[in-house]
Structures are given as structure tokens and as C-alpha cells.
């Protein structure tokens, strides 16, 4: 027997920019949901508009009759337009549909499973009495999901070329253009499409990163995924009030977190010791979001990825007290407990990464099991690459790291790779390390070495002078060849 569960998982009451009228008092509004050619029962859930808490409201079990047609009417009192997200599941078949409900509406939605595959439950726009916008939303989401599945199939089989991904984005734009013809220039539809495009660009970038294609990826495909224009979307009221709440529940914070890292890479790459520029970047960063939880993330990543590295470059270990005071002042506005704890840990360990600090005398093994100590390298400049076997950017820098080591062969400098791989990936590291000409040691993640230097991500490069003291705990990458060589040559 097939079962349909209808989950009403997102009901967010708020005004929409293009709504034609305002309502002062709640008005009875309803949705009648009809299922054709499906056997099973319905279940209904509602999201409270007051607390955003999920309130379960399960009616008596509604068994569908033998003719496989049944109706379920949901009634609510609303004073402003709402967006309702319906998730339908029948066995292995699923469908998702967003519904635009205005006060006083009595919408009738028909979902049909006749003559379709198990994955094609869809809203029947010919028989539904839901208005032009809802019909356009149904067609847009269903058609877009088909193309998304094609893209994911290509990703999983590693057959997605750059031209394919660019064509995918063009197709999504053409789907949106047709939906616009049906619904008109609706703000909600516009924001939803922009958000879908941002997501797709990020997935394309991840795919290119995993498959060593980032060097060839065009800016039109990847850059908009984390530029200021894209972040501007997240400040639009229609996005914050109608789209964001449901996406946050679906894990959007992880995507936003990643986008911020990419956004601040540009600032970190052009780092200077100009305090005025740092203040300007900080002010600009806070403009990326007006949504409070996202603003916390913006503050965190700006402080961690831009301001802390700036303090490291502009203060030596003799100025540790000053650097910590400045760092504490910058971190104070972050109220989120978890984020604040991370920043405080960075402040505590700041003395380990400021120029002039003696390096940690670690004891790490190479791929043959021999133990090496940092003290064994005294008298030589040491350039460390902290990497993992699964990291795309690490693989891009690896041949450049090996080439630079060859360029300095016979000089008083050691090019040292340190693996942060998890134990389950250690065998892969041993195999890869055996093919390198540079010294390779294994640390693992969340170990004394990683915590001592608060390694922010992979790859991270550290540079030490001949006395074993920190020169830069966030040193230039091998891909910045001229900049890196200028620094190394001064130390030799």
C-alpha cells in the first residue's frame, strides 16, 4: 500500500513586498488537498508563526477509499500572506510544493500519481484552483528538479564538464523566464530563483574543486556564488521572511558558512598592515547580512580569517599583550557562545603564532615510521605545508611545493609536509607520501600540533627562521611564488 504523508513544515506569516492589500484582522483561509490514484493516509503538521516551534496536529487517520481519491482541508486564520511548504511522500516517491496563501483564499490543490513513475508525484496545474502564481511555482519547482537530478547524476559519475554546468545555469534561467510569464514579476519567485542559482553555482564550484578543475572555471560560473551581489540577496525581506526559515532548518548555515570563507579569501589574499583598510573591510563585512544569526557568522569569519591574520602580521611576540587586547575588543560583539569560545581559544594561543615565538618542538613520524623532532631542523629555514589527502586546494599546491623545494635544493631550507588526515585516511597518506621528494610527517587532526598553531584550514603554510622562530604562521602559498621567494631569500 502506498502512503502519502503531507507535512506542513514551514508556515511563516509575514508581509510580501508585492502584496496588493493589508489585513488588520485574521481572516479564515484554507487549502483543500486532493490526491488522485494514491492509496494510504494523510498526516498534517504546522509550524507555529509565534515561536517557530513545530506543533503537531495529527487528525484522525484518513484512509483513502478504493477509488484512490481523497480530500483533506486545512483551515487557518491569517492576517498577512504566508508561504506554505508541502512535502509529499508515498513509499519511495516524493514531491515538494510551495504554496502562496493570502488571507481569504480558498485554494484547491490536486496531486496526481497516475501514469507517473514512483518519483513523479506532482501538482496537477490543470485541475488545481490555485491561481497563476501557485501554478507557476509548481511548474518551476517540478521542472527545475528534473534538471537538478541530471546535474547530480553527472556529478556522481564525474561526467560534468564546464560547458555542461554553464548550460545547466542557462536552462535554469529559461525555466524561470517561463514561470515569470505565467506569474508575472513576483518578488518571491524572483528571490527563490536567485537562491537556487547561488546554490547551483556553489555545487559546481565544489565539484570543480574535488576534480581539480578550479584553474579553468570561468568567473561567470563560480564567482557570483560568494560575491557581494549574491550576499545582498540574503538581506532582502522576501528572502529573510519567506525562504530563509525553511532553508536554515535544511542546513543552510553550512552553505552560508562556506560562502563567507570564500568571500574573505579575497581580503586575506591582499592583506596589508594598514589598520585603516582593516577597519574598512570590517565595516563592509557587517553589511553582508542584516539577519542576526548570519551577522554573527559574518563577524566571526571576518575576525578569524581577516583581522586575526592582520594582528599576526603587524605584531611580534613582544607585543603579545597589545595584540590580545585588540583581538578581545574585536571579538566582544560576537554573542553566539560556540563562536565566542572559538575566538577565545584563538586569543589564548595567539602567543604561539606571533613572529619571534619559538616553534613547537613536535615529535612526528614519517611514512616509514621514523620519528622527527622540530629541533632536528634547527639551523635551517623551515617551510611547512599542513595538508590532507582529501583536500582539493592542497592537491593544487602540492606540485608547486615540490617544485619550489627543487629550486632551493642544497640551500639551508627544509620543505616539510605535515598531514592532518584522520586515522582512517592514514594509509592513503602513507602511499602518497612515498611518492614525494620532500620530507613528509603525520600529525592527524585535533592533535597537539594542530591546536598549538590553531590551524585554520587546509592547506595552511607556516614559515620559521633558522633559529626555529615563527616568521609567519599564515605564510604565502607556493602559488604566490614571487612573494614567497622574496621572504625566503631574506631568511637564507
Automatic annotation (TrEMBL):
Main location, first listed in the record: other
Signal sequence annotation: 1-19
Key word Disulfide bond present: yes
Pfam family, one: AhpC-TSA
Keyword Nucleotide-binding: no
PROSITE patterns: THIOREDOXIN_2 (PS51352)
Keywords: Cytochrome c-type biogenesis, Disulfide bond, Redox-active center, Signal
Stretches assigned to the Thioredoxin domain: 353-492
InterPro entries, per database record: AhpC/TSA, Thioredoxin-like_sf, Thioredoxin_domain, Thioredoxin_ResA/DsbE_sf
Cellular compartments annotated: Cell envelope
Stated name of the protein: TlpA family protein disulfide reductase
Amino acid at each position: 500500500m502506498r502512503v502519502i504523508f503531507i507535512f506542513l513544515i514551514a508556515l511563516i506569516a509575514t508581509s510580501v513586498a508585492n502584496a496588493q492589500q493589508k489585513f488588520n484582522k485574521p481572516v479564515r483561509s484554507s487549502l483543500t488537498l486532493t490526491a488522485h490514484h494514491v492509496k494510504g493516509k494523510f498526516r498534517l503538521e504546522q509550524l507555529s508563526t509565534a515561536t517557530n516551534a513545530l506543533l503537531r496536529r495529527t487528525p484522525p487517520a484518513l484512509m483513502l477509499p478504493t477509488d484512490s481519491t481523497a480530500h483533506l482541508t486545512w483551515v487557518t486564520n491569517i492576517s498577512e500572506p504566508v508561504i506554505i511548504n508541502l512535502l509529499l511522500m508515498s513509499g519511495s516517491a516524493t514531491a515538494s510544493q510551495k504554496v502562496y496563501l493570502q488571507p481569504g483564499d480558498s485554494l484547491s490543490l490536486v496531486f496526481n500519481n497516475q501514469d507517473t513513475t514512483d518519483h513523479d508525484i506532482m501538482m496537477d496545474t490543470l485541475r488545481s484552483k490555485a491561481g497563476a502564481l501557485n501554478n507557476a511555482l509548481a511548474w518551476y519547482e517540478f521542472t527545475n528538479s528534473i534538471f537538478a537530478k541530471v546535474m547530480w547524476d553527472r556529478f556522481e559519475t564525474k561526467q560534468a564538464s564546464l560547458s555542461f554546468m554553464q548550460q545547466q545555469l542557462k536552462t535554469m534561467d529559461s525555466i524561470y523566464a517561463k514561470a515569470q510569464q505565467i506569474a508575472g514579476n513576483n518578488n518571491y519567485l524572483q528571490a527563490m530563483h536567485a537562491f537556487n542559482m547561488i546554490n547551483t553555482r556553489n555545487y559546481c564550484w565544489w565539484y570543480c574543486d574535488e576534480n581539480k578543475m578550479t584553474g579553468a572555471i570561468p568567473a561567470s560560473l563560480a564567482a557570483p556564488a560568494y560575491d557581494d551581489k549574491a550576499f545582498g540577496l540574503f538581506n532582502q525581506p522576501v528572502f529573510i521572511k519567506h525562504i530563509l526559515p525553511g532553508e536554515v532548518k535544511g542546513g543552510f548555515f553550512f552553505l552560508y558558512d562556506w560562502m563567507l570563507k570564500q568571500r574573505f579569501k579575497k581580503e586575506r589574499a591582499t592583506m596589508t598592515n594598514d589598520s585603516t583598510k582593516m577597519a574598512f573591510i570590517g565595516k563592509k563585512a557587517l553589511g553582508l547580512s542584516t539577519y542576526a544569526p548570519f551577522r554573527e557568522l559574518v563577524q566571526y569569519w571576518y575576525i578569524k580569517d581577516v583581522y586575526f591574520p592582520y594582528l599576526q602580521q603587524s605584531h611580534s611576540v613582544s607585543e603579545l599583550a597589545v595584540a590580545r587586547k585588540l583581538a578581545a575588543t574585536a571579538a566582544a560583539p560576537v554573542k553566539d557562545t560556540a563562536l565566542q569560545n572559538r575566538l577565545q581559544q584563538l586569543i589564548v594561543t595567539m602567543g604561539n603564532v606571533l613572529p619571534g615565538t619559538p616553534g613547537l618542538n613536535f615529535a612526528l613520524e614519517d611514512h616509514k615510521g621514523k620519528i622527527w623532532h622540530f629541533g632536528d631542523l634547527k639551523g635551517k629555514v623551515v617551510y611547512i605545508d599542513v595538508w590532507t589527502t582529501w583536500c582539493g586546494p592542497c592537491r593544487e599546491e602540492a606540485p608547486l611545493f615540490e617544485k619550489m623545494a627543487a629550486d632551493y635544493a642544497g640551500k639551508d631550507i627544509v620543505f616539510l609536509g605535515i598531514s592532518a588526515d584522520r586515522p582512517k585516511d592514514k594509509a592513503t597518506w602513507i602511499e602518497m607520501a612515498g611518492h614525494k621528494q620532500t620530507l613528509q610527517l603525520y600529525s592527524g587532526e585535533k592533535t597537539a600540533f594542530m591546536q598549538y598553531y590553531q590551524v585554520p584550514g587546509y592547506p595552511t603554510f607556516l614559515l620559521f627562521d633558522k633559529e626555529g622562530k615563527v616568521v609567519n604562521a599564515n605564510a604565502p602559498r607556493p602559488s604566490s611564488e614571487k612573494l614567497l621567494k622574496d621572504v625566503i631569500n631574506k631568511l637564507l
